[in-house]
Amino acid sequence: MPTLTHKRPDGSSRVLEFGNKPLVIGRLPESDISVRDSFISRVHCGISCTGNQFTLKDLGSTNGTYRNGARVFECTLATGDKIQVGNTTLVFELIAETGNAELRQVPAPPSGPRLSTGPVPGRGDTLAAKPPTR
Q1: How far apart, in Å, are the Cα atoms of 109 and each of 25, 40, 76, 100, 112?
Q2: Which pairing describes strands 33-34 and 23-26: parallel, antiparallel, or unpaired?
Q3: Residues in Cβ contact with 90 at an 8 Å cutoff, skipping those fewer than 6 apart
């Protein structure tokens, strides 16, 4: 039976074996592939393997599952596919020599400071005009 290796941004990895159920990607610590991201569902999506074909399936997530920028509900995975769940990107790689797969979690880019330019008209703030001076 093929395996899937989840490689985390901190350099650690976990080898998972495929069974009758898909390997679940979610925010719960009990998920097969647990991802800390508040924008993904507790049970977000799953990856299954039949023969030598890997399938990604959304499991009713709130914010959707994306492959290479397009929202998907179920699709076949190929080497180099980028899976986007919430703010997290996972890169799928098929190891042709072994028939196993690798899912590399890409570190999220650091968020810079938010810049404020003052109130924006139409967003609940009003800009009062100064009365003319005499």
Answers
A1: 21, 17, 27, 28, 9
A2: parallel
A3: 25, 33, 35, 82, 83, 84, 103, 104, 105, 106
131 φ, ψ (degrees, to nearest 5) = -70, 150
pLDDT at residue 116, as a whole number:
44
Other CB atoms within 10 A of residue 104 CB: 15
Task: Using the predicted structure, report yes or no on whether residue 122 has a pLDDT greater than 80.
Answer: no
Count of CB atoms within 10 A of residue 88's CB?
20
Give the torsion sign (CA, 22, 26, 30, 34).
positive
pLDDT tens for each residue of 45-64: 999 999 889 999 999 999 99
Cα 49 from Cα 18, distance rounded (Å) = 7
Whether pTM exceeds 0.90 = no
Closest among 50, 51, 61, 110 to 83, alpha carbons compared = 61
Confidence of residue 123 (pLDDT cuts 50, 70, 90): very low
